[in-house]
Amino acid sequence: MKPIDTDPKRLSAEVRGALCNEIADALQALWQRRRPSDQALHQVRKDLKRARAALRLLREAVGESAYIHENLELRDAARPLSRVRDATVALEIVRELLDSESKPARRAKLIELRRELNAERLSAREQLLRGHKLARIEYALQDAGQRAEYWRFPLNDAPVLRVGFERVYRKGRKALKKARAEPSAESLHESRKQVKYLQQALAMVVDGEAHGLKKLARRAEAVADRLGDDHDLAGLEARLAALPALSKPQRKLVARIEARRARLQKKALRQARRLYRKKPTAFLEQVLPG
Description:
Number of strands: 0
Structural class: mainly alpha
Largest sheet: none
Shape: flat
Strand content: under 5%
Radius of gyration: 21 Å
């Protein structure tokens, strides 16, 4: 996401431009070939997440009704792509585990799981590409981009952008507090989502001169990446643990995953505490001074 021009007289228009650019990028990824690759589908999801990050900052500027409608439209456009992404990521994790696994019994379990996941990935792709799902996504994104062009903003719109940033930051602090008190898969995933929203929002205001903001954005990205890896591992762990007649090789694999998750969580939560150490008012003065 390219940084926006932080001229206080045109902030909302710049954020809208960023949102529209992300929608356009998502459409371009869908149009590159007749049957988009897994990478292209994942890129569409990332583009739409960044578009929703821009929309969050415009919540007060566009009004609650428009925000709710557009957020649901973008969310629903991305949702059909999730099954392909989830199976693809799980496959990547299984391949990494295989690369470092030497025990024949555990390798056999991982190979069996890899086969199942690949079948799921192919099935999810066919269901997505067969019929009109991609066409409906394209139409929804085109309509969303066109509607955004007609939004009107207050002449002095800096305050509403500050409210948007403050909300993202406060929700992130709240989610982190809960994740530290009760580090369940759900609370950690919620913290990851909120950190990602913050990272995407910061990416829109970071430029070459803003060293402090660049550092914040990098830290947010590192936290989000580690908590994202933890979430993906949690899904694989649950899958292994749910198998009937859990064997010793499976228990060993679950233990390996748990140990890896513990390391990721420790690093991520330590970095997150530093990310959110400032009070919201001080954070806003750093991001949007004045």
